[in-house]
Write a structure and sequence with these properties.
Number of strands of chain A: 15
Structural class of chain A: alpha+beta
Oligomer: homotrimer
Distance between the termini of chain A: 51 Å
Number of helices of chain A: 5
Largest interface: A-B, 44 and 40 residues
Largest sheet of chain A: 7 strands, mixed
Order of helices and strands of chain A: EHEHEEEHEHEEEEEEEEHE
Radius of gyration of chain A: 21 Å
Strand content of chain A: 25-35%
């Protein structure tokens, strides 16, 4: 089925730019001018401005889902123009380009990761490295330039991690809400385990297999699609019902 | 002009996921990992969470505009994880994949429609059939698997229809607002007919050819791009002016 | 690297349609039905309804960033259905299609620009020229039709320009805010010049090289990525802090 004639570099974009100002459009123009047969894929441009943590979690979800050879450009960059480094990462056969603020951590944590520091020349716009540093680096990679030629080796990039839950003496795990998604589901840092009960404030919520095991409007906890427990409300918004936001404490009590 | 070397499967995505959580990104990764030369096309990810009816209306607009062979993935799925079936539909040369909740009705209503029930294996995430059921089915179709091999025949899928207007004794048609669009235009279920008058509350609005036949700020009714009458305000927001929303009653009085 | 077998027409879309109503989806269907190997690229669909000026500024940013041969479709069109012309523009090797309301001005101002008036036949939906006039014209161009065959020559298209700053007797330049972007940065019509000071209300803000030269939360002026001075707040929202919006007066005082 696959035909080498249509082999295209896949380049994804993940930013906090929105689309309304044309910044993403400019980046797409740079990419397609440099690599006319690239497949440019939008991951999202709706990360809240400068929310590095939220972007990191999206990177964690998507970066390894794409085929080997994919180039992910991630620009959520409150430090643009400062002395923070601009990174290229090669990890598990994929490439990632973005600022050195932890947003690329999911790929940096792989054993295979190699990192280079991209040079920032003086004619680069100090406010728009997405267009003038990261998109050109993607063009270079997609055009066959060797990864190591992109910059000098970088030994200590910034790495962020989701906080680990803490086990109490009685075995209960104290965790927290990592993200509230569009549906009002609160994704926690508690690894999935059926038979347990989530405690959040005064609420006690059994961990079940699917939303459909409770009645509409009721709270339910399920093991979500990344393996972590999510608190949801069937056909409703759990985060609003429980007033949950990023960092809210939640605990997991298991029956054993 | 057309060259068989660049023949690519076209796969469209229509969801209520937004893009901010990375769920759509994961689906794109699954699709491009399975079918590297696919053309993945965003229809929308902005359907309000779980608004099956709104998604159905977008499906109605777009599904047959795409070339034969197109695969449409439609995931607006309040019942994910329940016993609702997961469908594949072949209709008028296009394929559609989505939950059995009526969202695929526009394609199901064609005489040529065939439907199969996609198997949901036990290792599928109960909360994310978009990634684990529908995207893999699209990959299978795009890779040449035969439609009938995707699942077992399904005889009575859920079908939703736009309500029909009702004719009064005096010939006036009682209809309703089907959707209010981004511009505040209220699309009705009344088939276009010039020479008539729309009655909505105390307002009487002549059906005209274009918005431009009234002055800025004035109400106007026109035959919209799908053949149904829309109530608009030139350079304004008719739904706000008339307090219209989905289901609001409107009537069409014709001169004859 | 480049292989003529994968030469694809690039067609970009810039609208105020949002995606929720399926209008953009319909246009993509028309484009891919007519040109199955086209690369359809979203610039934005989030222009506020009928905000021709904002769309014009995005066109200015992006149109020449794309490779020669690119076809840009721009539909922000408060006058759809009126007697305003529908334009095709050939300029600097790119093509642009859109209404004659100034939205295509950045390309019209090039010396090389040629313009034709697209015919609007009677079976076109009076409310949706994006689907029925501009997308078919893009299909014609991408299929090899000659530009001049698309319509009759047009000699006086509507052109809009960003207002020029005015120089006071004492050398201070009186300018204005042209756009407030998603980050709350206020882009002005004052061409970049370091060593100057921006005056806005009672505030005096030195023009610096990067955001990072001030402390978080502080106001800063920088030369933005298009060469014009922007007023920003490091890790903050300058437009909110200074209550700036499109048209707000700002002045540039230089030290000489």
């Amino acid at each position: 089925m696959f035909d080498s004639h249509v082999m295209r570099p896949i380049i994804t974009l993940l930013t906090d730019f929105g689309t309304i100002d044309g910044y993403v459009g400019e980046m797409k123009g740079v990419l397609l001018s440099g690599v006319p047969n690239a497949e440019v894929v939008d991951i999202t441009h709706d990360i809240p401005p400068q929310d590095v943590e939220r972007a990191r979690l999206v990177v964690a979800r998507v970066w390894r889902r794409f085929p080997e050879g994919t180039i992910h450009i991630v620009v959520v960059d409150p430090g643009v123009g400062s002395s923070r480094a601009a990174l290229a990462v090669a990890s598990d056969g994929r490439y990632l380009l973005g600022p050195d603020n932890g947003v690329l951590s999911p790929a940096l944590l792989s054993n295979s990761a190699r990192v280079v520091d991209l040079p920032i020349t003086s004619h680069v716009a100090a406010t728009f490295h997405g267009r003038d540093v990261f998109a050109p680096a993607a063009v270079a990679l997609a055009s066959g330039e060797h990864f190591d030629a992109l910059g000098s080796e970088m030994r200590s990039p910034v790495v962020r991690r989701t906080p680990e839950p803490v086990r109490r003496a009685d075995g209960v795990l104290d965790g927290e809400v990592v993200i509230v998604d569009r549906f009002g589901n609160a994704v926690t840092n508690l690894l999935g385990m059926r038979g347990g009960t989530i405690e959040v404030g005064a609420a006690r919520i059994a961990v079940r297999r699917t939303y459909a095991e409770v009645d509409p409007g009721e709270l339910v906890a399920v093991v979500g699609s990344t393996g972590f427990i999510e608190i949801a409300a069937r056909d409703g918004n759990a985060a609003e019902m429980l007033q949950l936001s990023r960092g809210s404490p939640v605990a997991l009590r298991t029956s054993r």
